[in-house]
Amino acid sequence: MPYSITNHSKKAAKALNVKIKASTRKNKKVDVFQAGKRVASIGDTRYTDYGTMLKTDKAHAKKRRKAYHARHAKTAKKVGSPSYYAAKILW
What we know:
Blueprint: H1 7-16, E1 19-22, E2 28-34, E3 37-44, H2 50-54, H3 58-71, H4 82-90
Antiparallel strand pairs: 1-2, 2-3
């Protein structure tokens, strides 16, 4: 089943001034485009993300979001990296 992009991700992408589409790469959720060029493929379809978890349990989603940001604190700071886009768009 293909990944359905959440409203959370759409709003986050708009704030970053990038476009997102369902990924064409195996096991990836979202392709991120800037100026018409793909700059990153983010997320793994085999795992959940903040926007998906919000639909079922907000408290659990917030807990998992905090843990994600703690695990990826170093790599998510590099603007333009796939980790940056994943942290900003999916989490």
